[in-house]
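quick q for whoever's on today - can somebody do inverse folding on this one?? i tried earlier but teh output was garbage lol. tokens:
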């Protein structure tokens, strides 16, 4: 069973296990980006939710993180500590793989930060004690997410027609298996 650290740093980001105290900052980041998040993320459909409810969700994320069930990270500005978005490693049907999920508040987009976060999580998940494969699943119309997968060196694997719960949905599946060091977004193949 993988066990991952609660904090990791990249050149510009800190990825840290969510804390309930992050709820107000998370609320603000979601609020500023809600229309765009709703386009692609099922959880955003039920937002905005009260800060207390968000705090309870973050407490649950932290418990699941510490129980090695699912690893949901706050994506923070390394310099200021501001909440920029979220990213995580999620178990899905395939037992040899973890799925990487990610989102950024609108103000954090366009700087390569999602790619930086995805590369950090891929490196972590494929490292010692991790898994054989990481996947990104995205809607074929989500061109910005597809671009992140490509920049982070994922290759297109297949098309899936159901959600994890079995409901119909057209989903592109991208995978990455290896992590040769050194690596950079610019060298990732598609
Ligand atoms: C998906 C999402 C995270 C992508 O955000 P993004 O900002 O486009 O992606 P990145 O952070 O990797 O930034 C890439 C952009 O920064 C530019 N960039 C600037 N500096 C860069 C650097 N050092 N490295 C890489 N890219 C850089 C790239 O050229 C690219 O610009 P372009 O879109 O004009 O071509 C964002 O659109 C989002 O949150 N969407 C809603 C949620 C969602 O869809 N999640 C995925 C579900 S599968």
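ok took a stab at it. sequence:
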């Amino acid at each position: 069973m993988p066990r991952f650290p609660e904090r990791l740093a990249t050149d510009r980001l800190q990825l840290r296990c969510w804390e309930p105290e992050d709820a107000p900052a998370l609320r603000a980041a979601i609020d500023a980006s809600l229309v765009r998040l709703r386009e692609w993320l099922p959880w955003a459909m039920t937002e905005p939710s009260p800060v207390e409810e968000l705090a309870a969700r973050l407490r649950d994320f932290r418990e699941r993180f510490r129980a090695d069930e699912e690893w949901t990270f706050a994506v923070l500005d390394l310099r200021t500590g501001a909440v920029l978005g979220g990213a995580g490693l999620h178990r899905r049907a395939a037992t040899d793989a973890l799925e990487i999920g990610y989102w950024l508040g609108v103000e954090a987009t366009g700087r390569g930060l999602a790619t930086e976060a995805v590369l950090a999580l891929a490196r972590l998940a494929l490292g010692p004690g991790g898994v054989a494969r990481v996947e990104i699943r995205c809607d074929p119309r989500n061109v910005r997410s597809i671009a992140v997968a490509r920049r982070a060196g994922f290759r297109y694997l297949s098309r899936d027609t159901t959600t994890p719960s079995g409901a119909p949905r057209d989903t592109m599946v991208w995978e990455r298996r290896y992590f040769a060091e050194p690596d950079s977004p610019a060298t990732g193949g598609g």
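fwiw The CA atoms of residues 47 and 66 lie 26 Å apart. also Residues 36-37, 40-41, 102-104, 109-115, 138, 142, 144-145, 148, 151, 185 surround coenzyme A (CB under 6 Å). so keep that in mind when u check it
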